[in-house]
Amino acid sequence: MKEERNPILGKQSIVLNEPVYLIESASVVGKKEGEGPLGNLFDLVGEDDLFGCKSWEDAESCLQREALSLSLQKAGWKQGDVRFLFAGDLLGQEIATSFGLEKFERPLFGLYGACSTCALSLTLGSLIIAGGFAERTACVTSSHFASAEKEFRYPLGYGNQRPLSATWTVTGSGAFLLAKAPDGGKRPRAAITGMTPGKIVDFGLKDSMNMGACMAPAAASTIKQHLQDFGRRPEDYDKIITGDLGTVGQTVLLDLLEKEEIDISGNHMDCGIEIYDAKEQDTHAGGSGCGCSAVVLSAYILKMLEEGVWKRVLFAPTGALLSKTSFNEGQAVPGISHCLVLESLYPDDGNR
Amino acid sequence: MKEERNPILGKQSIVLNEPVYLIESASVVGKKEGEGPLGNLFDLVGEDDLFGCKSWEDAESCLQREALSLSLQKAGWKQGDVRFLFAGDLLGQEIATSFGLEKFERPLFGLYGACSTCALSLTLGSLIIAGGFAERTACVTSSHFASAEKEFRYPLGYGNQRPLSATWTVTGSGAFLLAKAPDGGKRPRAAITGMTPGKIVDFGLKDSMNMGACMAPAAASTIKQHLQDFGRRPEDYDKIITGDLGTVGQTVLLDLLEKEEIDISGNHMDCGIEIYDAKEQDTHAGGSGCGCSAVVLSAYILKMLEEGVWKRVLFAPTGALLSKTSFNEGQAVPGISHCLVLESLYPDDGNR
Fold first, then answer.
1. What does the DSSP 8-state code read for residue B178?
2. Run of H or E residues at B13
3. Which of A230, A317, B9, B280 is deepest in the core (most CB within 10 A)?
């Protein structure tokens, strides 16, 4: 059964001959996300976006705490069962993570990949298990509309207008529990079987109100390299899922890949497009933030894999590498995208 | 020769039965660091702290670029030889890293551990190799006095007074090249043989001008757990080296460990104390920043290991998990510390 370990693949990929199991997960979101098309799939929807806290930053910490607690509870794990935590958020110096997770008292690997952080955490969280350095890890990411507006753009009280290309930062946190082996009799939610960590891709775009276009080249680069490294075609995946390109970024991504003779128009999905009803909810190009891909993964994507509706998906969150300072200093907005292969463990025909 | 892999140790440690090699490294620093006691050990000292750039943030990106380029050059590696980059800095959304490293076009794992980030990058960079997921990785971290003052405290033009407990953020970047096997005939600078990733430790201290005291409890927690997990005593290390506790934090650390009946007073060293002549250079409690432990590791600690003066050291950088926002909102300053075991490969009696 035990094959020769040959995990290094192609130019920048890793294949896991023995998969890492995504045992359990949880999603906690704000009011607006609860009112969106995926509303009734989330584990917990806040009544108001302060979650009983005094500041937006505290509220975001609370989201992380709730998401991790809930996932542990669902899996029947104690916090001590988690060997290492892999986590991050969008705020300067990652304060949502520090104050959100300190009470769990687990060794913490702090990560920053802008809105791609969910993939970054799952990549490292699963590699540490695959390498034999831990039996169980947990991955947590979050974003909050109000703390992100304050961090990157204007405080809410300023009431600025948003262009149609702008995205709406998702208020939400997703937590994921990973393990080397399935837990007891319960079927894990999915298996992680490979990944392609991404490079920074900078096309020189400077419009922080059009992050979809800024991130699309990175998504295109990672997806193209992934397919090449794994020797796969788009149709080998039921869905190829980006994080928060939104409608504008989606168009750019499909165009860029078409130029490379890669057609993913039939199976592309974007978490940012799925999470809101853009017209009804006035969210313009779609949702964004680390929380966006995390909560859609937990509530929707894993559900589809669990039920065997999808057999194999490519999960490719995207991040825009800007800060208030880099924007004010006239820098471009480079993008980054990391992707993972997630496979269904539904018994019918789990592997193709 | 190949032992059974048993890398999980004690409560939160990992032991590498097959070490990962620290092949080469480079340190680039600012003018003040060049004038300090370690001045003539650094690879490159800037003539002024803008390094020919237009902003402090750009200058910090330039430090990272120079450090990585220089280390590659010293090792005779091409940038394509590096499978993955592990990097981070102190600025909001890690812009020094994004803009510093994008031109290398390598897959990037962005990390945030405040001033402990150098240890975080070496931990993950070496585990990815030890797990068989890469042959070669590079780890880069930086800080810059002027960009950090602007990010965390006041712009330099404000000319605020600094209390004696304050530390001085080091302008510098260190880059480290790791590999599975020694390169050709050249002896690597050191071997990484184990690590203890740290938890967030929060004693409720709120004084951001006394970060040494805020971080000391985290250093004490990680060092204590490390010794317990590895079944070692302080004297099993020639030096136990913290990152940037400074003189105030050092006192707190020694006191906290003494209460646990652990005496490291004979072999403790702090990079922040070593890098400046506090009286002559008016740096108060010592140096700080991710760059501090990184450049002292590259220029001084690795030199001592390389020459066989020290056989085995514990390298334990420390981070203060605060931001301007968390400080203004009255939050405490929790600390975190990750440690690594570094061993000399000097031929005489390389292993004890």
1. E
2. strand B13-29
3. A317
